[in-house]
UniProtKB/TrEMBL annotation:
It comes from the Eukaryota. Belongs to the choline/ethanolamine kinase family. GO terms for biological process: phosphatidylethanolamine biosynthetic process. GO terms for cellular component: cytoplasm. InterPro entries: Kinase-like_dom_sf. This is Choline kinase 2. PANTHER family: CHOLINE KINASE 2-RELATED (PTHR22603:SF81), CHOLINE/ETHANOALAMINE KINASE (PTHR22603). GO terms for molecular function: choline kinase activity; ethanolamine kinase activity. It comes from Lithocarpus litseifolius.
Amino acid sequence: MGAGENTVDIKVDRLPGEAKEILKSLAAEWEDVLDVNELQVIQLKGAMTNQVYQIKWPTKTVSRKVLARIYGEGVEVFFDRDDEIRTFEFMSKHGQGPRLLGRFPNGRIEEFIHARTLSASDLHDPEISALIASKMKEFNDLDMPGPKNVRLWDRLRNWLGAAKSLALPEEAKAFCLDTIEEDISVLEKELSGAHQRIGFCHNDLQYGNIMIDEVTNSITIIDYEYASYNAVAFDIANHFCEMAADYHTETPHILDFSKYPGLEDRQRFVRIYLSSSGDEPSDIEVEQLLQDVEKFTLASHLVWGLWGIISEHVNEIDFDYMEYARQRFQQYWLRKPELLGSVRASSDSVADGNGAI
């Protein structure tokens, strides 16, 4: 998950030696940098998978900046880093994101994009939301090299296996992990119809992964760790769920689902999304995608609920992953009867809060 612009100054010593060598080599290529060794390191807050740093050097005019991304410990369970780099390079070549400037064993150096990272409130701004809808459609329509198989269901099953192997017995019981395999199968059957639009999905389109150039009003989507082919309804559903989050508060793990977009806002977003490629969608198309999006919110809750359980045991970033997971599972059990029409009694412990960790 992405990083925002809240910053903390840190010492250069926090960077791996290989990273510092790449940074010095880059700075040496810029004639206006006064001293390649005088780099300032600023940690960007809000990242929950990696540690992200802004690196800058004093120059004769405007300071030079790049980003250093240090991969989180143990997060290889979530994605293949080689796949992510291939995606990153493809996106860069097609003008969709920052350029890759260098790699080292546990991280990389990226171009610094001179744009503003969105805030939580920006997702609720109708004008910005319209820009995001159009950009998401452009992203989903990318023709990525390699297989175009839907990855969601395999990812859920793999993450469920990892969560079961890492969770303490009381955690596994509280989250009803023994019942989730069946739930995944039900969701897959319900949401794998031939009508589903399949595209290249970001799968983590929270506000920290979206940037806006306020001069041109252009949107850039960044951070592709979780990107893969999926039903585009999942990408939209996940984005809607992220409207409940604000990762730059004193309690960044707390979600407020009263901020989930209302029907009118969802309709507007979906209509803009479908019409952004030039064709006006029918009311039936809009309604079908809206219904699919709502059902895919259940998959989003499971994905990030399992992510939270795993992260609690493998990631050292200061974030209450387990409480975040509890809220996502709670929403899953809460919405499931309405969206799928049935729910097991064994899930009530989480839905009622009795199974809280």
